[in-house]
Amino acid sequence: MATLAPTFPWVKGAKDDYRTCPVLTLKVDMHAERLIIANAVMAVLTLTIGGIAALLIALTRWQTFHLLDATWFYRLLTLHGIDMLIAWMVFFEIAGLHFGSTVLLNARHAAPKLAWLGFILMTIGGLTANVVVLFDPRNTVAYTAYMPLKASPVFYLSYILFAVGALIAVATFFINIVVAKREKRFEGSMPLVAFGFMTAAILATYTLLQGAAAIVPAFLWSMGVISSFDPGIYRNFFWGFGHPAQQVNLAAMISIWYSLAQITVGIRPVNEKFSRLAFVLYLFFINLGAAHHLLGDPGLSFAWKAVNTSYAMYLAVLGSMMHAFSIPAAMEVALRAKGYRKGLFGWLRNAPWKEPGFSALVISIVIFGWVGGVTGVVIGTEQINMLVHNTMRLPGHFHATVVSGTTTAFMGLTYYLIPLIFRKELKLKKWAVWQPYVFGGGMLLLSLGMITSGLQGVSRRNWDITFAGVVPGTVELTLAIFGIGAILAVIGGIMFVTVVFVSVLTGPRTEANKLLLVSGDGNPVLESTKLTDHMMEDKQNQPRGAFVLVFAFLVWFAVYYFTNWWLLGRTWFIR
Ligand code: HEM
Ligand SMILES: [Cu+2]
Questions:
Q1: Residue 389 burial (CB < 10 Å; 0-12/13-18/19+)?
Q2: Residue 51 in contact with ligand 1 by CB distance below 6 A
Q3: Residue in 75, 235, 403, 447 to alter for ligand 1 test, most ligand atoms within 8 A of Cβ
Q4: Is 80 in the pocket of ligand 1 (CB under 6 A)?
Q5: Ligand 2 centroid to 440 CA: how many Å?
Q6: Residue whose CA is closest, atom 36 of ligand 1?
Q7: Residues 261, 165: one domain?
Q8: CB-count exposure of residue 505 (10 Å: 0-12, 13-18, 19+)
Q9: Nearest one of 303, 316, 311, 308 to 291, comparing CA atoms
Q10: Which atom of ligand 1 is the closest one to the Cα of 394?
């Protein structure tokens, strides 16, 4: 970064266009700052609405309470899917893209007007979707809106507005990168975290275009302009959007893993090329995964399904495993370099467990990989999918990935955005220390409860499971585990939202003066633990513990995978 121009080209004389963050020692463009704040606020707001719906639908699926009637259950299920999976995730990611293409590159926001247009369209689209789902009974179609379920035209229009807004915002990411390169804000390849966000942005672009190919015809059909549209084609395009959208979440989450590991233990990636390659694998292979949503569909051949959901698809899984080794390994090296070298896991015992960014990171990695990743590969395998299709194992899987994994990581990062970008002191620090544990612990119970209920045949998206007669006692138990987990997770969610809003809405604006929130000696960690090449290569600092953990993971993976084949074998008795 030595040859950087001293100031932004356009700020000559104008003082209020950027500030220099004393902690990151990076320039923060004020347009970018306001955009990040606006998107983050909308993200937390939609998370709050989605969370209220979460509690109510969870207390309905927990058969002992069975709180809502059918209409309200499906209405709030729809709302929950939209606000959580679409609004909370995408608003937060757009905030991340604005951050990654400006602050991280020490560059300006080159297209703020366009970015605001994107934000406004997303906000109108998101709020409209909420209103029409709550007040128009035609729109209880779940967030997937599978044809031939017919929602009102405004429902589809709200999706289109949101998606166009998101596309515009993503376009500004690319504009920023090109301008930053031209203005020589960075040299050579961009920093790893920004590179990860770029992966997310590329995925987002074709994801949103495929979404349009599903939603636009559905919109026309709902208005009566076209008389029919093949539900199979709709599903194909819908998942061409819905599945890669999860990979946008994944790429964003992993970029945030690298940031949190850098912030909290000062890592340096053990091998940057290796990490970049892992991101590139997503770009090329993850789209194939979309086919795993169609495994129960008629009309597609076995061979088509099997090819698309395995082989090349596993190259994308390989990408995740590369990151899942590379980050813990880098954390181990960094902590060993600080002197925590005792035994295999001394580094882990001495890690900053009270720092919310660190605990959120570890919880996110562990539940994402050990629960979400492993169950996902099983669900996505053509043959064993038959054991699982449309049971509670599905939401069990993705509450481990997109919630315990992505949402926890986003929450962890938010704690640092408050001092660095909102420029507010973090309030209720004790709550923040506990929050990742309460949320993560609750989510783990919820996922395991859903997975074990699904194993016994409880279906997903089902208002009442008693219609078929008796419910076995073990289902009552697993649903209770799920329900208790849900309550804990909601408490964790309330803690998060409270910390954010109390911090942001009270107290004066102040420049941050340190990076760590609760642990550490107040020195910016990035400075105090700059890892030298010598430290990285020191034999004593090699990541032996992380290696053992990864090996244990692979064993668990194999056990779970083959157990499912064994279970499948037991469903037929061939004599
Ligand atoms: C306190 C936190 C949460 C709780 C208690 C919770 C609970 C639930 C429950 C009970 C269901 C219905 C399952 C079924 O009947 O099939 C559900 C569905 C779902 N949840 Fe969550 N959830 C939480 C957070 C989240 C978050 C943060 C996301 C996304 C980032 C998310 C994404 C989804 C999705 C996509 C569905 C499927 C909706 C559908 O089938 O249409 N959830 N959740
Ligand atoms: Cu998928």
A1: middle
A2: yes
A3: 403
A4: yes
A5: 22
A6: 81
A7: yes
A8: exposed
A9: 308
A10: 16
3-state helix, strand, coil in the chain (%, to 5): 70, 0, 25
Interatomic CA distance for residues 197 and 190, integer angstroms: 11
Give one DSSP letter per residue of 18-78, joined into a string: EEE-TTT--EEEHHHHHHHHHHHHHHHHHHHHHHHHHHHHHHHHSTTT--S-HHHHHHHHH
Give the environment of ion ligand 2: residues with CB less than 5 A. Answer: 243
Tokens of 537: 């290569």
Q: State the pLDDT at residue 346.
A: 92
The Å distance, Cα 51 to ligand 1 centre, comes to 9
pLDDT along the chain (575 residues), means of 10: 43 61 88 96 98 98 95 97 97 96 92 96 98 96 96 98 97 95 86 92 92 96 95 93 90 94 88 89 80 88 83 78 91 90 92 95 96 90 86 96 97 96 95 98 98 92 82 88 98 98 93 83 49 82 91 92 89 69
Residue 527 has which token pair? 């400075």
Q: Is residue 160 part of a domain?
A: yes
Residue 462 φ/ψ, nearest 5 degrees: -130, 125
* CATH code for position 449: 1.20.210.10
490 Cβ below 6 A of ligand 1: yes
Ligand 1, atom 28, residue with closest C-alpha:
84
Q: Is 145 in the pocket of ligand 1 (CB under 6 A)?
A: no
Type of residue at 101: S
Closest ligand relative to 207 C-alpha: 2
CA dihedral 525, 527, 529, 531 (to 10 degrees): 140
Using the mean position of ligand 2's atoms as its centre, give its distance from the Cα of residue 453 in Å. Answer: 21
Distance CA 256, CA 270 (A): 17
Tokens coding 275: 């990490």
Which domain range does residue 98 map to? 22-265
Ligand nearest to the CA of 372: 2
Residue 105 lies in a domain: yes
| One domain, residues 258 and 379 | no
CB 210 within 8 A of CB 241: yes
* Alpha-carbon gap, residue 306 to 315, rounded angstroms: 15
Are the C-beta atoms of residues 274 and 322 closer than 8 Å to each other? yes
Q: Annotate 311-333 with b (16+ C-beta within 10 A) or e (fewer).
A: eebbebbebbbbbbbbbbbbbbb
> Per the confidence metrics, is the pTM higher than 0.85?
yes
Compute how many other C-beta atoms are within 10 angstroms of the C-beta atom of residue 437. 16
Identify the domain boundary among 210, 240, 265.
265
Distance, CA of 299 to CA of 41 (rounded, Å): 44
User: Residue 18: beta bridge partners?
Assistant: 29
Q: Is residue 574 part of a domain?
A: no
Task: Kindly give the distance from the C-alpha atom of residue 461 to the centroid of ligand 1, in angstroms, as a whole number.
Answer: 10
Which listed ligand is nearest to 398 at the C-alpha? 1
